[in-house]
Amino acid sequence: MGITFLSFFPRLIHSQEYAFFFLLAVALYLAWVERINPWIRTPIDLPLLGFVGWVLYTVPFATDLAYSFSEWRKLVAQVLVFYWAMFVLRSYRRIELSRLILWAVVLGSLVLSGFALVDFVLRGGTWRDRLVRAGAPYSDYNWLTTYLVLVIPILIGWVVIHRTVWVRAIGTLTLVMAGLAQVAAYTRAGWVAHLAQAVGFGLMAGRRRLLIWVLAGAIAMGGGLYVVSEIGYQRGTIDPWTLSARVTTWRLGLHQVVQHPLVGVGYGNDTFLKLHAAEVAAEKSKEPGEQVLLALHNTFAMVLMGSGVPAIILFIWIFVSIVSTLTKQWRKSTAAETQGLLVAVAVVTVGFATRNLFDYMFAGSLAHLFWILVAAGLCSVRLQISTEAGAGDLSLKEVARSEH
Fold it and tell me: Which domain range does residue 327 map to?
């Protein structure tokens, strides 16, 4: 719960990492004492571990070997968070732990959204334009909007499933504040990610009418935003210069992919700037839409340019495996609470992948929160079954034997 709650505050990333490695050491020690295997197999092991291994293989070919190896170590830390969360959830064998994790998400979202909205108002933010944008504590609007992409589906599931009045009230309040904060962030990539989540849910649930309503609503809101921009409001939101600059930057990245398709030029978000510092400096005098950005602003493009075609295939495979596994478990599950968690995490994954098409946000606390949510989703069915069977009080050794 502590690691999950700390994930909402990027400035505390080092405290979060220290706490995580301490708890990881405790978990490994406990596994050694109980004489059980701490390794928990998951349906995403092959693409996830394959991706980590391939990135390591490409490090010696990197433009800056030390930097790429440092970024690879950060990737390993993210993966360790996932497997640690899987081990703890499986070892505890009680659905209550997943509920507590969701409570940490709700409370963290409430604090995050409240801070963002108050800060937005105090800095003079308005609905007229995005000169002032809501941001996360000690961070910016990019981080805030990504947090909200991760938590809003969880909050919606929370409100739908829970029947207790005060619990639903807290969830509804948090959801409303998160929605307002997402609007106040004025980040189009976040809005597109929510659109992808709605479409993804419609496809998972097989609800064609929902898809039609979602697409019609998106067209109506886009048209309305264009109309108000014509009369002088939200012109900065409509201005496409950021997309034009991204396309210009992606072309340079694609040129590196053509030259180094197999092993890339070095894993890491700063690799692009190391290679194209001269172009970035030379084009500062051009119009904003024609300038080269400091980074690719696309996690998938960064992976492709940094570690080659095999890396991007494995990276996409990770997301596809998560969504397909959770969707299959959702359709098989009969418990409403379990179904809500499964579909919410699947929708979160769709949105997080979409958000990373426009910025490099698969990093730090955001990645930690994402992997904890994925672990909670993958464990939820087994946890529900073990709870119903009365297996909640088994020791770690007995759990390992029963699973074997």
Answer: 2-403
